[in-house]
Predict the 3D structure of the following.
Amino acid sequence: MLKKLSIVAICVTYLCGTAMAQDAKTVIANAQKALGDLKSITYSGSAKDVAFQQCGSNAADMICRGTHDPMRPITNYVRVIDVTSPTSRHTGATNNPAGGGATTPMPGTFFQQVTPQQADVSQPWANSLEFYITPWGFLKGAVANNATASRRKVDGKNYTVLTWSPTVKAPSGKNYIINGYVNEQNIVDRVETWLGENIMGDMHILATYTGWKDFGGVMAPSKIVQTRGGWPFFEVNVTAAKANPPDVATLVPAPAPAGGRGGAGGGGAPGGAPPPLTVTSEKLGEGLYRLTTGNGSYDSVIVEFKDHIMMLEAGQSEARGLAYIAETKKLIPNKPIRYVMNTHPHSDHTGGLPALVAEGATIITHKNNEEFLEKALNAPRTLLNDTLAKNPKKAKIEAVSEKKVYSDGTRTVEIYHVSPVPHSNGLMIAYIPKEKVLFQGDFSLPAAGQPANDHVKALVPILEKLNLNFDRYINVHTSATPQTKADLWKAVGKQGS
């Protein structure tokens, strides 16, 4: 009797599994039919994008108000999605930073693509997901990768959720997951996936497709919004669409090498492992050191207090953060790194923070950055295999408003918010009065004979108001030779100090 029941249970399980598989196939077929069983589609309109974890260079609005605010406008936007190839390309007219720290944007071209090689689901997910989070790409992937179906309610709407995984694995060895939400009209309303990201952990990537309508014979959404980690990332207002364009192979050609700027997830993986970092230190005073790796370095300063250490900045990468932690422990043994100060939350200035969080350090940042860093660094890290994933700790944030002084009676560090400046609304500088050192990020002095950029011009009036008595001027972006207050004043055409 028990044997018969076991056989029945196995059969029921098999039949349920088969029914779910058939249900998924039916859902996919119905969704493809609702979208017109397209081989390719092109749509156009206007768009917006961002420099990830920063603000867009914007001809109309250059002041950075927060994470991904403002976004950068893209006009004459066109996208082509070739489901058969498979491939995706989109382009438009935009503006790029003028270079040299100038805030006046220059005309440029937005261009991003997913090639057939990148769309191979055995290749890095970061390079292919921009194709698969489109409704047409998602359904193609669902057909080829044994999607399963489930039921779910989101924002009061009932969905059939199709789920599948690419064959490529995350660095942790875990499967990536992609979900497509099919509504009761068999339309794909939203697609989501997750990607391991240094600051944002298991970064949630969500694309929503709303306002579906018939654009003269083809169904397409009139509004597309993509968020990453919950923050705005890419938006499109669609004003025209065409099914199966005869010139699909030649639509949206790649710009000349010097003209384009990737965006909205583009770009390939960097080639090869970076060379190991060799850290050297410069003693600025008793228990005060500048850490550097030479040309191209992101420099940090470490400050010794009676029972702990403060690190000013942990930029660029996990590797740099780990190298600076190791050097700090050699220079000042047997004291914990209690604090790490973040000059601002741009991705190249936060890269080492996860390693410092794993070390147990509290992040000192401006209050405008608090929400972003708290959410990002406390997100799950199941897709990553880095130091913080291996040694998970809750990120501790200590927010600064306009000024905060850290002192133990013998050593003092003063931290100031610098505003208004165009680069970020969360920029801070550190002043060490005993050695008269000013430490800052991204206010780089010009080369000899060149004019000061707009960021440096914005900083000097703030420093004048603060009346800080500094001699040494240290930039996170290392300088070829030591710089002084006199050098800064000279750069903006001021005499004396």
Confidence is low (pLDDT under 50) at residues 2-19, 259-271. The longest strand covers residues 231-243. Residues 59 and 105 are 6 Å apart (CA to CA).
